[in-house]
Amino acid sequence: MDTAQSINTLVIGAGQAGLATSYWLTRHGVEHQVLERREDLGGAWQDRWDSFYLNTPNFSFMLPALTYDGPEPDAFLPRDAVIDLFRDYAPRISAPVRLGTEVTRMRRANGGFSVETTGGRFAAQKVVLANGAFQLPRIPAASAGLSPHVFQLHSHGYRNPQQLPDGAVLVVGTGQSGGQITEDLLAAGREVHLAVSSRPEAPRRYRGQDVFHWILQVNLHGPEYGINGFQVEQLPSPAARFMCNPLVSGNDGGHSIRVRELGRRGVRLHGRFEGTDDGVLTFSDDLPERLAMVEAGFGQRLKLMADAYIAAAGIDAPPPETPTADAWLPAESGARLDLDAEGITSVIWATGYGLDFSFLDIPVLDGWDYPRHSRGVTEVTGLYAVGLPWLTRHASATLALVGDDAKFVAGHITGLGS
Question: With 0-12 CB in 10 A as exposed, 13-18 as middle and 19+ as buried, what is 385?
Answer without folding.
Answer: buried
